[in-house]
């Protein structure tokens, strides 16, 4: 069966969206006093701080587009391998490789295990047919790993999450339109992972060129039926929709990355110094890096994880279960065998993932 | 007596005078004893100016690297006014095309017929195997056509469509040459003068430009690519010129920026690009190497590029062609009939006759040389 319908109901976390004492609830039970349900937010916060959380980001694009630099700039630390000082021996790999590196970064008492998955060799060969296949394979392998863990009888308390939560796709700033390769990649992968397209090295475009290019890219994506994150179909309510619409209008973000600081107007800023001026990375008039950072990290980080878990992963899971006529729950240590046993189709209930 | 002395004196002095007069006259004659062929360059100049020059420039590289903008900036024209940019869907089945734009430019009475050969679609597909094939076919075609015309009956008005120079655009986003760059240049370096350029150099900081240039130069050497070499300066040129020439050679590959718009910078209207953080001036030497490229391409080396094309690349092609023809001749054991390599009725027979004549001449001259050498030996002994 290849009909995949994303589940209609997303299991909501057991947190009320608004504090309950602002307006009387419409469905019956009037509160006769203060109970303290709203302190659950504080409890969750404490727990999160103790356990920390995972975030996996994949960067895809031709070599030299500033992928590693941008990730380092986003997380303000050296989390990605710097390939600016290539020696002659570090040639372009013949096939797309997948290299992942994990770091734990901490801010305000919150620990995050950040994994950056790099894809050297993508789009660099003369013949780039199917160069997205290794990437697609990797993503599905992570889903498979998670599925196996879930399906175990003796499950771990906290399943290690290596699924790719976000894929940053770097578009070359030609100023004309998307390349064939870009469209092929996004077509194949937008239903499998959250793709956020960014325009790399955008300090080569003037403001007019930038606006024109973004418009053309958006039109092309629409024409090809490619839905990037945030996807329209997953907007929950009007508030979400209006926020996300604003973001969709501004995408793809035209970014510039840098890890060097310069003195501008008495302040130290991250930027790139050229003979005609300093490009400030965090200045919204110069480039949209701060927009991207705020969007990805400060407002939608959790949402990225949720969409990955509830939509993409569930799609994969449903497909796997349907293909095999129901996975037999096994004890840990054995490989899942595709045995077509006449099992009653029981619903395998998955525990809500701890953040 | 004295009277006679006095009489003879003037004679002597007159004789002396006439002698000196003769001396003076010979000096004057020596000054006027020039034939007058020193005016030849002026005559050539006048004739060429009347005839006009032509130059064919090819631009190659992926789309979006600023090729059209650079050509417009170089020649201060707008060759691509009505161009429609294709989007990715339309480009799915596009193969590499060859398009030609010709423009006649005149400056101070000198006419230039400039042909720009563009290569849209190069390197844009997902699978770019042999995407340089249409380009090598095109250059070979032009050589073939010239070869035929040269061997033809009416040689007065040969149209020279051979490509004199190819500007190859390397993207600034990478870490050096990519596989497609290397393969393209290796396929074309023996057919056309290749000048590699680093395009859109305004996205690089000065240290990045230097690093990339060094890297590209190393890789060009490593892969054995023969790019166009500037000719050596004559030893009698001025020091200043030699210094400029040296700087030029150290600057390759040129990092260029092009612009179709005029902006206001430092109180002047210049070609440039306006960014929120500053203005890039195309003709400012500290911003990019555009001025160096323009001077090299147009002001000092245009003629040399044509010469190298005629003397080196075309001759290689011609020798290769003739070799093939003669080897085929030997293979097929046919002596007089025209072969289908260059399907021309009579000129083929003519060229073969010419070749035979030249061969015989060579043989005769060699024999004469040998005889002379023998004679010299005998004389010594």
UniProtKB/TrEMBL annotation, chain A:
One of its GO terms (molecular function) is GTP binding. It is found in: Cytoplasm. Residues 1-26 are annotated as: Disordered. SUPFAM superfamilies: P-loop containing nucleoside triphosphate hydrolases. The keyword GTP-binding applies. Keywords: Cytoplasm, GTP-binding, Nucleotide-binding. Coiled coil: none annotated. InterPro entries: G_SEPTIN_dom, P-loop_NTPase, Septin, Septin3. Its main location: cytoplasm. One of its GO terms (cellular component) is cytoplasm. The keyword GTP-binding applies. Residues 51-323 form the Septin-type G domain. Belongs to the TRAFAC class TrmE-Era-EngA-EngB-Septin-like GTPase superfamily. Septin GTPase family. This is Neuronal-specific septin-3. It comes from Sinocyclocheilus rhinocerous. The lineage of its organism: Eukaryota, Metazoa, Chordata, Craniata, Vertebrata.
Automatic annotation (TrEMBL), chain B:
One of its GO terms (cellular component) is cytoplasm. Residues 51-324 form the Septin-type G domain. Keywords: Cell cycle, Cell division, Cytoplasm, GTP-binding, Nucleotide-binding. The keyword Nucleotide-binding applies. GO terms for molecular function: GTP binding. The record marks 173 as: Important for dimerization. It comes from the Eukaryota. It is found in: Cytoplasm. InterPro entries: G_SEPTIN_dom, P-loop_NTPase, Septin. One of its GO terms (biological process) is cell division. Transmembrane segments: none annotated. Its main location: cytoplasm. Coiled coil: none annotated. Belongs to the TRAFAC class TrmE-Era-EngA-EngB-Septin-like GTPase superfamily. Septin GTPase family. This is Septin. It comes from Sinocyclocheilus rhinocerous. The lineage of its organism: Eukaryota, Metazoa, Chordata, Craniata, Vertebrata. The gene is septin5a.
């Amino acid at each position: 069966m290849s009909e995949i319908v994303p589940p209609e109901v997303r299991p909501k976390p057991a947190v009320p969206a608004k504090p309950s004492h602002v307006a009387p609830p419409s469905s019956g039970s009037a509160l006769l006093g203060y109970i303290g349900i709203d302190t659950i937010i504080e409890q969750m916060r404490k727990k999160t701080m103790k356990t920390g959380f995972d975030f996996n980001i994949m960067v895809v694009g031709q070599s030299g587009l500033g992928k590693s630099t941008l990730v380092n700039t986003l997380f303000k630390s050296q989390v990605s391998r710097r390939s600016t000082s290539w020696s002659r021996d570090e040639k372009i790999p013949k096939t797309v490789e997948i290299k992942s590196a994990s770091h734990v970064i901490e801010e305000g008492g919150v620990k995050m295990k950040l994994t950056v998955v790099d894809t050297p060799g993508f789009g660099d060969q003369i013949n780039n047919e199917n160069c997205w296949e290794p990437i697609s394979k990797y993503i599905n392998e992570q889903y498979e790993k998670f599925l196996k863990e879930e399906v175990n009888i003796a499950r771990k308390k906290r399943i290690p999450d290596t699924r790719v939560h976000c894929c940053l796709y770097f578009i070359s700033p030609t100023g004309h339109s998307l390349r064939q390769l870009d469209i092929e990649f996004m077509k194949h992968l937008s239903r499998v992972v959250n793709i956020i397209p960014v325009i790399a090295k955008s300090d080569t475009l003037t403001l007019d060129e930038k606006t024109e290019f973004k418009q053309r890219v958006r039109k092309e994506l629409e024409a090809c039926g490619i839905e990037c994150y945030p996807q329209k179909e997953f907007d929950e309510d009007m508030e979400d929709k209006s926020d996300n619409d604003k973001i969709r209008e501004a995408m793809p973000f035209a970014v510039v990355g840098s890890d060097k600081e310069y003195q501008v107007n008495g302040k130290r800023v991250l930027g790139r110094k050229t003979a005609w001026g300093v490009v400030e990375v965090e200045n919204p008039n110069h480039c949209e890096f701060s927009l991207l950072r705020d969007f990805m990290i400060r407002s939608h980080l959790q949402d990225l994880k949720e969409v990955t878990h509830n939509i993409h992963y569930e799609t994969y899971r449903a497909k796997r279960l349907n293909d095999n006529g129901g996975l037999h729950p096994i004890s840990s240590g054995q490989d899942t065998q595709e045995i077509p046993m006449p099992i009653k189709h029981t619903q395998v209930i998955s525990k809500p993932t701890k953040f | 007596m004295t009277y006679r002395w006095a009489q003879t004196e003037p004679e002597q002095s007159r004789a002396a005078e006439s002698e000196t007069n003769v001396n003076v006259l010979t000096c004057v004659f020596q000054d006027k004893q020039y034939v007058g062929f020193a005016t030849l360059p002026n005559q050539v100049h006048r004739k060429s100016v009347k005839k006009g020059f032509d130059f064919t420039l090819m631009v190659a590289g992926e789309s979006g690297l600023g090729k059209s903008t650079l050509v417009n900036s170089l020649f201060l024209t707008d060759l691509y006014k009505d161009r429609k940019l294709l989007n990715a869907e339309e480009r799915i089945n596009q193969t590499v095309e060859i398009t030609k734009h010709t423009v006649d430019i005149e400056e101070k009475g000198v006419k230039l017929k400039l042909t720009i050969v563009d290569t849209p679609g190069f390197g844009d597909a997902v699978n770019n195997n042999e995407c340089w094939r249409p380009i090598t076919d095109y250059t070979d075609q032009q050589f073939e056509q010239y070869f035929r015309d040269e061997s033809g009956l009416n040689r007065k008005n040969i149209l020279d469509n051979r490509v004199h120079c190819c500007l190859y655009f390397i993207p600034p986003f990478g870490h050096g040459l990519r596989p497609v760059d290397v393969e393209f240049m290796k396929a074309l370096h023996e057919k056309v003068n290749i000048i590699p350029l680093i395009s859109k150099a305004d996205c690089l900081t000065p240290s990045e430009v230097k690093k990339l240039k060094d890297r590209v130069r190393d890789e060009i050497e490593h892969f054995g690519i023969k790019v166009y070499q500037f000719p050596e300066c004559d030893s009698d040129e001025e020091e200043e010129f030699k210094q400029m020439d040296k700087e030029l050679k150290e600057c390759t590959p040129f990092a260029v920026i092009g612009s179709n718009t005029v902006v206001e910078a430092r109180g002047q209207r210049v070609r440039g690009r306006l960014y929120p953080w500053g203005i890039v001036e195309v003709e400012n030497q500290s911003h990019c190497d555009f001025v160096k490229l323009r001077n090299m391409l147009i002001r000092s080396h245009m003629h040399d590029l044509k010469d190298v094309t005629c003397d080196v690349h075309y001759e290689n092609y011609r020798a290769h062609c003739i070799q093939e023809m003669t080897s085929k001749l030997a293979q097929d054991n046919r002596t007089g009939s025209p072969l289908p390599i260059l399907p021309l009725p009579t000129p083929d027979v003519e060229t073969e006759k010419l070749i035979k004549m030249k061969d015989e001449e060579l043989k005769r001259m060699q024999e004469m040389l040998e005889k002379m050498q023998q004679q010299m030996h005998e004389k010594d002994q």
